[in-house]
Amino acid sequence: MKDAAPQTIYLKDYTPPSYLVDSVHLTFRLSPEHTRVVSRIEFRPNPEAANRDFFLHGEELRLHSARINGAEVTPQMTLEGLTCEVPDAPFVWESDVEISPVANTALEGLYISNGMYSTQCEAQGFRKITYYPDRPDVMATFTVRIESDLPVLLSNGNPVAQGDGFAEWHDPWPKPAYLFALVAGDLINHPDTFTTKSGKDVELNIWVRPGDEDKCAFGMEALKKSMKWDEDVYGREYDLDIFNIVAVDDFNMGAMENKGLNIFNSSCVLASPETSTDANFERIEAIIAHEYFHNWTGNRITCRDWFQLCLKEGLTVFRDSQFTSDMRSAPVKRIEDVIALRGRQFREDNGPLAHPVRPDSFVEINNFYTATVYEKGAELIGMLKTLVGDADYAKALDLYFDRHDGDAATIEDWLKVFEDTTGRDLTQFKRWYEQAGTPRLSVSEAFEDGTYTLTFKQDTLPTPGQDHKDPRVIPIAVGLLNPNGDEVVPTTILEMTGAEQSFRFEGLAAKPVPSILRDFSAPVILQRESSDQERAFLLAHDTDPFNKWEAGRALARSGLIAMIRDGAAPDTGHLDALQAVVRDDTLDPAFRALAIGLPSQDDLAQTLVNLGEVPDPMAIWQAVEVLKQTIAQHMQDLLPRIYAQYQVDDAYRADADQAGARALANAALALISRVDGGAQAQAQYDKADNMTQQLAALGCLIGANKGDKAVQAFYEQWRHDRLVIDKWFSLQIAYSDPDHAAEIARALTDHPDFTMKNPNRFRATLGALAGHPAGFHHASGAGYALLTDWLLKLDPINPQTTARMCSAFETWKRYDADRQSMILAQLDRILGQQGLSRDTTEMITRIRSA
Ligand code: BES
Ligand code: ZN
């Protein structure tokens, strides 16, 4: 019944639900193959509905019986659910359905992972649990009874009863079905409490499988910090007696904000110094915050429909970035976010999968949990805040929570609170939500009689289905420096609204050096003819940390492009400027570590495309290798000093200070390994007592071709720890040379510990190959073929994870004819598979139509 032609859903077709739900009672009789779900749902006609058609979503359910007001009924089954004659007045629907959690490998709905029952309902997974109007604008209170012999039985809300073989939960806050959750298993809790600002005690638990209980402490601290931060910064208090987090090994995404019962991919919550890197700790802190923050931005105020996804995700990503900035270093977080934005979102926006932050159509909503909805969505909130200022942003958010608490809201509602707070007209700003593509911003300058003029032009290339683009409002943060390096005009926000616009600065004694788009004040591509001299000047003098880093990045990029295009030698001016930053003890070590980093190979490929060239992935890889080698030699004296100076003697802490020191020392180690043949890395590997240092050393050893023994030893040491073994899989591929990457990945898929049923392991292996541009795009085509083989194997088992990984092919139009035709052949091979999922069909079709 599933294989009907995929339907496209349009935002413009939205209609309110015909029936609303007041309350839901669910009883689960858990059994691996024959779970029974008994529902009792109170419906009433929606006065705002256009019709009285009664439709309930349902997929892969076996209906045993259905009743309306106590009388047995026989619904008509449709492809996606059922319809039924119902009274034109409030009524009670009851059904009894059977499902098989053990057969559920898609990890959507109710499934079993390592012996525990778990659910994932966002976006449309609840319909695999029972018949229901599975749409976010239908909100109801849920009461859940779980019957099972397993010791721990959890659901949303507060516990109301429990006894031998059962537990009951009640969630007083009306919610859409996508926020429903159930967990049952033999779990151990790491308990704590939090007292809210109004004095309410909340019980906190992190639930894990036995053996993982010593990896919960960090997550718990992150949760308490998040709760406090949301009270302090947004005035938002928690609203239940209990907050549970559960770690699950098999999970398609990172984590999920189910009301009162967040479910986490174990990789995003379990942490210990021995098994987790500093980057893991930072990510775990952020993701715990993210899911917790959804309690207000997502749960209390949810989305009217899935086109509004950025309403909760963009805002919540913005909030978790603010949180991380406050907990750690704001400039470092900003730089990390921009690296990720360019690496994922700009790439997406520039290819066949480009779509607006608020899309206007989709086939499979799971394919729209994208970098554009999330990361660009968060950038839009940041721009709004810049445009209205901090005070009005705070007022607008208070109004949003006041006005829309309990609502299923839209982007229009969101923008209206800003308009009502500030009196601004946000019609033009709304284009950011509606138009796909990254605006390109070019700049020219003039200086005459003490007046300095900056003239900006904006344009956006056509994207699929959108040829014409209107100019957007762009907040451009600018500062001006004197030739001696002093700042003469501090950061000023220029508000660009036209396609072309000039801004004047008067009374200047000399022609200044501009620092444009400070703190990356808008998600645009800045195109500015600039000299390497000026870049080096800004790298040395800019007071804006983001633009200081950006200047170094631009220097590295222009040097690399010259090496790739013209066979130029590495630019010594760049190396000296870089060395000065690395040596500068007044700068944050984490910042210096970021400054040593080079633009990604993917970034360089796109830069070449923008220059009208066809990128050669192997030439890019080689240029990066040569530059790294040159930097290592150029800084031969400095690097060992830096390495020694930033060794951490104190006991391990996962905080920003220690992590920054380790990041700088490890960046130095990576370069040192290029001149000492891996001796220092071996020494670090041998004495490492934390994963940050152990893994960094292992990477250096593999890179230096000295990794064989350590790779083996690492496996023996960690074979019992699945999250560490994920790292073991990906590292061997990430650090392999391009000629062998696909073969190494293929061999790893033969390893007894490889399993495609676990999304983390699949991503650690095939995702690592996709993330190695020169290996994946190897001229032999072996990378394309291997990824395709596995996408085809995984699709029938787990369409969501398969579809997400298809984006590896999204850049195919950049490459030469041979590569294009090899990729096309693989795309066609995928599309030719019988019974290909809707998820993967949509992705490959869109990619192919480029
Ligand atoms: N609501 C999402 C999880 C989700 C995504 C469920 C897609 C179903 C389909 C959650 O809040 C989320 O955004 N998680 C992110 C991590 C976050 C820190 C950006 C994730 O899982 O990657
Ligand atoms: Zn989210």
Task: Record keyword descriptors for this entry.
5-stranded mixed β-sheet, 27 helices, binds zinc ion, binds ligand BES, 31 strands, alpha+beta, 8-stranded mixed β-sheet
Question: Would you spell out the secondary-structure blueprint of this structure?
Answer:
Elements: E1 9-10, E2 19-29, E3 35-45, E4 55-57, E5 62-68, E6 71-72, E7 76-77, E8 81-83, E9 91-99, E10 109-113, E11 116-120, E12 140-147, E13 152-155, E14 158-163, E15 166-175, E16 182-185, E17 188-195, E18 201-208, H1 217-234, E19 242-248, E20 255-256, E21 261-265, H2 278-293, E22 302-303, H3 309-327, H4 330-349, E23 361-362, H5 371-388, H6 390-404, E24 408-409, H7 411-422, H8 431-434, E25 440-448, E26 451-459, E27 474-481, E28 487-496, E29 500-505, E30 513-516, E31 525-527, H9 532-541, H10 545-566, H11 572-583, H12 589-596, H13 601-610, H14 617-634, H15 638-645, H16 656-676, H17 679-687, H18 691-703, H19 708-718, H20 722-734, H21 741-749, H22 759-770, H23 773-776, H24 782-794, H25 799-805, H26 817-831, H27 838-848
Parallel strand pairs: 2-12, 18-19, 19-21, 22-24, 25-31
Antiparallel strand pairs: 1-23, 2-3, 3-9, 4-8, 5-6, 5-9, 7-8, 10-11, 12-15, 13-16, 14-15, 17-18, 20-21, 25-26, 26-29, 27-28, 27-30
Helix pairs in contact: 1-2, 2-3, 3-4, 3-5, 4-5, 5-6, 6-7, 9-10, 9-11, 12-16, 14-16, 15-16, 16-18, 17-18, 19-20, 20-21, 20-22, 21-22, 24-26, 25-27, 26-27
The structure holds ligand BES and zinc ion (ZN).
Ligand BES binds next to strand 20, helix 2 and helix 3.
